[in-house]
Automatic annotation (TrEMBL):
<feature type="binding site">
    <location>
        <begin position="100"/>
        <end position="101"/>
    </location>
    <ligand>
        <name>substrate</name>
    </ligand>
</feature>
<feature type="site" description="Transition state stabilizer">
    <location>
        <position position="17"/>
    </location>
</feature>
<feature type="binding site">
    <location>
        <position position="86"/>
    </location>
    <ligand>
        <name>substrate</name>
    </ligand>
</feature>
<dbReference type="GO" id="GO:0019631">
    <property type="term" value="P:quinate catabolic process"/>
</dbReference>
<comment type="similarity">
    <text>Belongs to the type-II 3-dehydroquinase family.</text>
</comment>
<keyword id="KW-0028">Amino-acid biosynthesis</keyword>
<dbReference type="GO" id="GO:0008652">
    <property type="term" value="P:amino acid biosynthetic process"/>
</dbReference>
<comment type="subunit">
    <text>Homododecamer.</text>
</comment>
<keyword id="KW-0057">Aromatic amino acid biosynthesis</keyword>
<dbReference type="Pfam" id="PF01220">
    <property type="entry name" value="DHquinase_II"/>
</dbReference>
<dbReference type="InterPro" id="IPR001874">
    <property type="entry name" value="DHquinase_II"/>
</dbReference>
<feature type="active site" description="Proton acceptor">
    <location>
        <position position="22"/>
    </location>
</feature>
<feature type="binding site">
    <location>
        <position position="110"/>
    </location>
    <ligand>
        <name>substrate</name>
    </ligand>
</feature>
<comment type="function">
    <text>Catalyzes a trans-dehydration via an enolate intermediate.</text>
</comment>
<feature type="binding site">
    <location>
        <position position="73"/>
    </location>
    <ligand>
        <name>substrate</name>
    </ligand>
</feature>
<feature type="active site" description="Proton donor">
    <location>
        <position position="99"/>
    </location>
</feature>
<comment type="pathway">
    <text>Metabolic intermediate biosynthesis; chorismate biosynthesis; chorismate from D-erythrose 4-phosphate and phosphoenolpyruvate: step 3/7.</text>
</comment>
Length: 145
């Protein structure tokens, strides 16, 4: 079963948007790096991005029975979306939350995460490397299934 790697709003602009905060790598670069590492780990990665809350929720529903685990960077929905939390609570496997920036060093409205109420682990402030660290952890949590 694949690991779903889901990305929320504005992450399609990665590399162009506030590079001083999020770096110069694009989301396509991150997807390629995740694909390479997944191969090494014996995992399959399904990497997606949407600016729409409902689309992300549909993908989380699809993950039920379809995905071994979910790595999610919910973008700003992290701080607002009870609906994404509810969807993740309907998923059985491990959930890991990734933030490229260190949200705790930023505005106080970024300090609270609804998704953290569900996530087994959270990575913040490791840049795009956070996705790779989360994938490694996912390999451990799913036994490479
Ligand atoms: C983010 C942090 C969020 O606060 C922000 O809204 C984002 C990206 C991160 O990866 O650092 O869009 O999730």
């Amino acid at each position: 079963k694949p690991v779903y790697i889901l990305n929320g709003p504005n992450l399609n602009l990665l590399g162009q948007r506030q590079p001083e905060v999020y770096g110069r790598e694009t989301l396509a670069d991150v997807e390629a790096a995740c694909g390479r590492l997944a191969g090494e780990l014996g995992l399959e990665a399904r990497f997606r991005q949407s600016n729409h809350e409902g689309v992300l929720i549909d993908w989380i529903h699809e993950a039920r029975g379809e995905a071994s685990g979910i790595v999610i960077n919910p973008g700003a929905f992290t701080h607002t979306s009870v609906a994404i939390l509810d969807a993740l609570n309907a998923f059985d496997g491990p959930v890991l939350e990734v933030h490229i920036s260190n949200v705790h060093k930023r505005e106080s409205f970024r300090h609270h995460s609804y998704v953290s109420l569900r996530a087994e682990g959270v990575i913040a402030g490791f840049g795009t490397e956070g996705y790779l660290l989360a994938l490694r952890r996912m390999a451990t949590l799913t036994g490479g299934k």
